[in-house]
Design a protein that fits this description.
CATH class: Mainly Beta
Shape: globular
CATH architecture: 6 Propeller
Strand content: 35-45%
Number of domains: 1
Helix content: under 10%
Order of helices and strands: EEEEEEEEEEEEEEEEEEEEEEEHHEEE
Number of helices: 2
Distance between the termini: 39 Å
């Protein structure tokens, strides 16, 4: 299954005005990944070395620590555990790994090696309803920017369960966020520079079937974050173009929000076509208010508020969505 559709015409979903964007939090450092809970907590990855916590009363806390070898952590994706600790996917300069961080600042190794190899800089981590942990590695290339190309596909997915840790999918085009759909039958994953949303049939043992391409994305869209609504739609955030796109269960796309400069997108597209896309195209995004959005988490009492992680901002944007989010494994954690 593979579908490509213009994001603005594939559905009747009404686009949202940028005037509807609101912000929460302040002083955050690269809040790339966001998690929300039923109680109203908002957690975000923070490059001060841990996790920022925005409490329901409006106050903020920072939980931080250093890796066991003394290096400073650079968390990209984060997961909330039932005991209140966190898993951090470390996006270090030349090595990665996943670490457990307690709110007291204690750090321990969760996973540094798999199938005989050291984990490269690690992108994303999440826990599912079955108690399994999933980890995505975007690329084996160091520096990562060498993989900002459509002809590179060396990303992979790791599963950690009662059988241990193992690579369950490989050969992906810059593996980014992954999520299990509401049916529990499919693992979906964004391939950022492969410019597609893919999925794998998910067996009871955690083994994955063959990759299926759900849809491919057009100019300006580089899929990063993914979250499902209760109707089975996948909400995708795109870096560079600051887009939110809903991918319906049939693979059709609808653009919901965008904050981008046509000139900047054109420059990025030209560079991508020449295999010259680089950090400046990600770090100099021209926009009105969004700061290179990278993830989306459903929150609020009805799970209809989308909180948006970002690569360049110091606060978290939020918008109201016309669908309620599918509750994740951590929804009732504190």
């Amino acid at each position: 299954m593979s579908r490509t559709a213009p994001a603005s015409t594939a559905s009747s979903l009404e686009p949202l005005s940028l005037d509807a964007v609101r912000f929460v939090g302040s002083g955050l450092n690269r809040p790339e990944c966001v998690l929300c809970t039923a109680r109203g907590d908002i957690f975000s990855a923070d490059w001060r070395g841990g996790v920022a916590h925005l409490l329901p009363d409006g106050t903020q806390r920072l939980y931080r620590g250093t890796a066991p070898d003394g290096r400073e952590l650079r968390p990209n994706g984060i997961a909330l555990n039932a005991d209140g600790s966190f898993l951090l996917a470390d996006l270090g300069s030349d090595r990665g790994g996943v670490y457990r961080l307690t709110r007291a600042g204690e750090v321990s190794v969760f996973l540094e090696r798999v199938d005989g190899i050291d984990l490269p800089p690690s992108n994303f981590v999440f826990n599912d309803h079955a108690g399994r942990t999933w980890i995505t590695i975007s690329t084996r290339h160091i520096p990562r920017a060498d993989a900002y190309r459509k002809d590179v596909a060396d990303g992979f997915i790791v599963l950690v369960d009662g059988r241990g840790a193992r690579i369950v999918a490989d050969g992906l085009g810059y593996t980014n966020e992954a999520a299990i759909d509401p049916s529990g039958n499919w693992l979906y994953v964004n391939e950022t520079f492969g410019r597609r949303l893919s999925r794998f049939a998910l067996g009871r043992s955690g083994d994955l079937g063959a990759r299926e391409v759900v849809c491919e994305f057009g100019p300006g869209t580089f899929p990063d974050g993914i979250a499902f609504d209760c109707a089975g739609g996948a909400w995708i955030t795109s870096i560079i173009s600051n887009r939110i796109i809903r991918v319906a269960p049939d693979g059709s796309q609808a653009l919901f929000l965008e904050d981008a400069s046509a000139e900047h997108i054109a420059r990025a597209e030209q560079a991508f076509a020449r295999n010259e896309l680089a950090r400046p195209h990600l770090d100099a995004v021209a926009s009105r208010c969004l700061r290179n959005i990278s993830s989306l988490a459903f929150g609020g009492a009805e799970r209809t508020t989308a909180y948006l992680g970002c690569l360049l901002g110091d606060a978290i944007a939020s918008v109201e969505l016309p669908f309620a989010g599918h509750p994740l494994a951590h929804w009732n954690f504190h």
